Amino acid sequence: MKLFSFWRSLATFRVRIALNLKGITPDEVIDVNLMQGKQREEAFRKINPMMALPALIEDDGTVLFESLAILEYLDETHPNPPLLPRGAKARARVRGLAQIIACDTHPLIVPRVREYLAHEFKVDEEGVLRWGHHWHTQALQALEANLAVSPHTGRYCQGDQITIADICLAGQAAGSSYFKVDLAPYPTVKRIVDTCMAIDAFARAHPLKQPGAPASL
């Protein structure tokens, strides 16, 4: 198994957490420096034409891409511990929470969007930071509103079982630090994130624990 990764990639952070929870160690981790535009080079474009991380290549050569698809693949092929609850309604809720982050918010702040804002619309660095801050805040408000009042929220997003929602929430929290968003106004989110980050599988996967990462942001 080969994992294409970069320390700053929040989507790859999700996959690293799942791999750690499942006890899977990739045979090779290949660095694709997003800040240097390495994702646009021909070698990686052949692996993922979307030019986005993560990508995972299985031993038989199968290429997997998009973090949520990879998380569910890992859950189906390595079912313990499960990352989705058993009930259909619970699974839908977990997927919904995960998608607020991975589908509605994260795509708006990835490098290609920030670069487009800067190059095509001449948005300065402060403006790009405000853009990311806005969309992170919007997501956190929605997540807090859901998690704080739902009877299904427990130790984690869905009861006392770690799910893909918690994995995505950890990524949202890491991304919030990139864009100077304080988690204090979102106490339920912060509580769940703090609980998750106390777990070794989450802590080891953190962006700042990866090769090439700075000491701090």
Provide an overview of this structure.
α4 runs antiparallel to α6 (125-149) and α7 crosses α8. The longest helix has 25 residues, at 125-149. The chain has a four-stranded mixed beta sheet, covered by helices on one side. It has helices at 10-22, 42-47, 67-77, 88-105, 111-120, 125-149, 164-178, 187-197, 200-203; strands at residues 2-5, 28-31, 55-57, 63-65. The chain folds into two domains: 2-81, Glutaredoxin (3-Layer(aba) Sandwich); 88-203, Glutathione S-transferase Yfyf (Class Pi), Chain A, domain 2 (Up-down Bundle), CATH 1.20.1050. The protein is α+β, with helices and mostly antiparallel strands and 217 residues long.
Write the SSE topology.
Elements: E1 2-5, H1 10-22, E2 28-31, H2 42-47, E3 55-57, E4 63-65, H3 67-77, H4 88-105, H5 111-120, H6 125-149, H7 164-178, H8 187-197, H9 200-203
Parallel strand pairs: 1-2
Antiparallel strand pairs: 1-3, 3-4
Helix pairs in contact: 1-3, 1-7, 4-6, 4-7, 7-8
Brief digest:
This protein has 217 residues and is an alpha+beta fold. It has helices spanning 10-22, 42-47, 67-77, 88-105, 111-120, 125-149, 164-178, 187-197, 200-203; strands at 2-5, 28-31, 55-57, 63-65.
